[in-house]
Amino acid sequence: MKSVYPPLSPIKSRQKFAETKAALRRLAEQNPPGTKLPTVRKLCEELDVAIATLDSALASLEEAGVITRRRGSGIFVGSGISQKTVGVVFGINIFEAGASPVFREILRQCQRRAEIHNERFSFYIDIDQWDNRSGAHPMSMHSDLVQDLSAQRLTGALLLWPKDAEQDRWIRGYNLPVISLECDSLQKMGGVRLDYASLQDIATDELIKKGCRRIGFIQNLRDLPVPVARLSACGAVSHSEWVWRPTRPLLEMTSTNEEIGFQAAKRMFGSSSSSCGIPDGLVILDDMMTRGALVALRKHGLQLGKDVHVATHANKGSSILYGYEDELTLVEFDPVEVVESLFEMLESQWGTSRPVSTRILRPVVASEIAKIIL
């Protein structure tokens, strides 16, 4: 078979082995199995590496099935090149009650792609580990993930809700395509970003349309500012007593987002000593927090749609807020769109060294028809 052989760039990094291996893998991925690749001499010249470095990289790729070497014949693309191995790294516990429907959709898509595209998937749950004595947050990594990255067994990775930007940068340092799913609008690592700032703005506007002028916020992001200018322009207000953001003490005392939502609403609506009174509108940026908040509102004798209006994050097709659809304003992300975007971006990175771009997904207000169907 005739190979597609674009010129290779000289390796300038000090990590000669890793860069050489990555360059050879990209070259192999541009051709079908059985295609003959350039000679050892040609590869050494173009990559500007020693023959020992090239030989080590070829041996590692041969072990993975990416290439095969035939004495007296040359180097050929191996049969393993047609099967990609994707690491799916979950930065939060996907087994806790009320876990995001995005996780279920990820697993469904992985099963489908394994059957149709002959792809393999490795799953890692890489949750936070806090040192209760010092309060430190070490950058701990799942040991299997570290081993698989070091051995370059993965051809790509999906990083779902990374713990922090440092973890994201560390994984990208292994020179494989990495697509992150982020909720924090302040992170700019590249990948798919859920625009929670837009969700908060949309939810606020919807409450203002309903006549709310005292609006509280229960957020799941520490750095997302309250839309003060938006409120002021419509004659609405918010006070610090009506804004809840995640804090380490409360997160350590509670086990689920539902419990966190309950505690946040209990504090916001149960303070009889507050000089500001209580909100008549509430924006919540997590559907499981909303479930908990609804319990707290009911305990305080508050009626949805009369005493207080709630506009909340939701996932299209999810049953988490089942039974409350007519009493809530739902601002939805579509899990199918989220997961399809992740895989589309990952596919676009295979065989290229282009920087990863960012695709921003914005939510929409669920229509009345959609609420009835749900």
Low-confidence stretches: 129-139, 368-374
Helix-strand sequence: HEHHEEEHEHEHEEHEHEHHEHEEHEEH
Mean pLDDT: 84
Q: Major sheet, described briefly? A: 6 strands, parallel
| Assigned CATH architecture of the largest domain | 3-Layer(aba) Sandwich
Return the structural class: alpha/beta
Question: Count the strands?
Answer: 15
Strand order of the largest sheet: 5-4-6-7-8-14
The CATH superfamily of the largest domain is known as Response regulator
The CATH topology of the largest domain is given as Rossmann fold
The 3D shape can be described as elongated
Please, how many domains? 3
Q: What Rg do the Cα atoms give? A: 25 Å
Question: How much strand?
Answer: 15-25%
- Oligomeric state of the chains? single chain
